[in-house]
Amino acid sequence: MKKMIWLTTIFVLFLVLVVPGVLAVTLDMIPAGDQPGYNSNQRLSIYGERIVSQKFISKEKNLTAIGTSIRNPNLKNKKEIILNLYDESNKLIRTSTLNGQNFQDGDFVKFIFQPTTDSINRTYSFTISSPLAGPEETIEVFYFDTPTENILEYTYDEKSYPGGLPIVTFHKPDSKFQVVRKIYSNLFSRLL
Q1: Half-sphere exposure of 62 (CA within 13 A, CB side)
Q2: pTM above 0.85, yes or no
């Protein structure tokens, strides 16, 4: 009976202390926070000339991806969906292209690009478009009406509004050791 208790204790400690570090080594990007809440009835249609633009502040360095929830009603959009990232002077710095057939209706979609190393506390904007899609191939993005700490305003049909898309920014860690250290410090602070 004592052997079983010791084996169970060692196995649980292994799961709690070793497995998170091993899994952390495999991470290529880390989210800067959680996706803000949104009302699923508040959506903007994107197709052809209709695009949405979002202004936000990056809270970490090495910005490498932007994720948001996108609807692809009835999986009709099989065209390119393009995210263009602009710096503070409105200069195009990154582009990420996905195909609508690669995600389902309501998926959380990540637009991945080369890291921008000096992105911490900088204001960026991006556009999401599907220029080859017609009205019957629309995609929809969700939005909310209240600005947050890092989501400032969005533009749709050439008008700006407070709030924006419920985005999550992802950042490339400087080193694998930094990720492991952060995970263990969070783990131990929660245990204590």
Answers
A1: 10
A2: no
- Asked if residue 124 lies in contact with residue 63, where contact means CB atoms within 8 angstroms, the answer is yes
Q: In what order do the strands lie in the sheet with 80-86?
A: 92-99, 80-86, 123-129, 52-57, 151-156, 159-162
The enclosing domain of 100 has a CATH number of 2.60.120
* In-domain check, residue 37: yes
Render pLDDT for 18-57 as a digit per residue (tens, 0 to 9). 777 676 667 688 888 888 888 888 999 999 999 999 999 9
DSSP string, 28-86: S-EESSPPPP--TT-EEEEBTTB-EEEEEE--SSSEEEEEEEEE-GGG---SEEEEEEE
